Each structure stands twice: as structure tokens, then as C-alpha cells.
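During the reporting period, we have paired protein sequences with C-alpha cells. One record among many follows, to show the layout:
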Amino acid sequence: MEHECLECGEPFSGRSDKKYCCDACRNLYNNRVNLQENRYVRKINGILARNRRILAALHDLPNARLYRSDLLRCGLEPAYFTGYSQNEDGTFLYRCYEYTYVIDKDREVHIGKSTDHTNGLQQVAGFYTAIAAP
């Protein structure tokens, strides 16, 4: 049965559900179709990775008092995080992978690091947040 390759347009024979004349055409076609989606995902993953690096660096500073403005000055993009929760008192806790940060009423930032994502709770400056199991 004759088919026309979706990528190069060349005729080829094969199974009735075959769409491409060769693996190279299949790869080219799928890479082209997925390019825009992959570009968007790479951009978001890059922002999340940068936020994680910033939180990791600030978490390792001993006895540092940090404020929201410090996070922004370091380049943290607060709109991008991997999860969040809200305590009973209305305080939001933001997660970026294993790091959690909370901004208290005085705008001071407290950063915590979870070493075990399956334990269910993490304490950040006296605040507890539930951590969803992977």
C-alpha cells in the first residue's frame, strides 16, 4: 500500500498506519511539531532551577536576615514555584523543589530545606507545611 511521508512528501510502502518513510523523517516531523511546547517548558524549568539555586544559596547563609526585597534583588521570580500551602493563620508557604520559604508579617523571609519529601511535614521558622508525597 502506497503512502505519502508526512515530513518529506515522498511516496513509500508499508503498513497501513505508517506515516513516515524513515526514522529521520519521523524525528524531524515530531521535533518540529513539539518545538514550541518544548521551548515553553524549558523556559519554565529554567526559571524554577534559578529560583532553586537562589533559595539554596540564601538558605546556606548563617544567621542572615532576609527580606522579600533581598529575594527579588537576587533574581528570584516569586510567581514561579512548585507548590504552595496556606496555614490556618493565612500565611502562605511557597515551595521550590525541596526548599520552602515563608514571608512573615514583618516581610522577613524564612527559608527551610526538606531532606525527606515523604515525612509529610516540614518546619520553616515555626511554620509547618504539608509536603505532598511524590
